[in-house]
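Progress against Task 2.4 (sequence-to-structure conversion) is shown through the following example record, which the project officer requested during the mid-term review.
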Amino acid sequence: MWFRNLQIYRLRDCAISPDKLEEALSGLAFQPCGNMDMQSRGWLSPRGEGAPLVHVLRDQMLIALGVEQKLLPSAVINQFAQERAEEIEEQQGYRPGRKQLREIRERVAEELLPRAFARRRKTYAWIDPVGGWLVIDAASPAKADELVEALLKCSSDLTPALVRTQLSPMVAMTGWLAANEAPAGFSIDRDCELLAPGEEKSLVRYVRHPLESAEIRDHIESGKQVTKLAMTWNDRISFVLNENMQVKRLAFLDLIKEESEQQAETADEQFDADFAIMSGELARFLPDLVEVLGGEAAVV
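Structure tokens generated for the chain above:
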């Protein structure tokens, strides 16, 4: 149970208790799609069916939003609608018009919906009431927004806001790469992306490439700025930081996972050990990351 991507939020005055959060989330517990539903979402237990919706360990909380979506591709609707339109044409002696074709498609979609396959996904979020963090394991801001929206519907005690820093990640990363010097506690790895300002938006991407070369410096001197940079924190966590303060490709290095495996014998113990070590590492990593970006920007 290791997060792979971080969408990072600040929680101001987070005073909600696990019991109160459990009660709040239960009002929007997950229910599968009904026959005529295209999508359903609600809270699931992070541990699996029958367990609480809020998993608590050493004051740290883990929650999970479940989303189920029906798969009904337009190509399938169009195929059945075309067959239906041909049947109607034979009956009435002329091709259906635009309005009639639209109505045919709508009827076909309604008929197919109960038979459509459903795809389910789960998005996890870690709540640290001590440090004041809400961190969502989501690769895209849209999935994080989806979880935050569901959370706000359940509880007014949680008011998450995206973390803003005094120094923008783009400016900071460009400076680190230009000087070939990472901030204290961090090291620069071998992946980066540089983007030129202006209308053309020319892009240069380096993958598994030494980033201390003069070629990189030339790109920066020509005006390109770093929008993604692979880094490692304290030889414990590797990640890619992007211009929007999102952390991607998060990987807890082998030393950390070995620590977790040494603490567990059963699946339940392993889950708790993973969560305890992950939340502990992130609770130290996030303040360090914010600090090297100049600290948090004042809330307006």
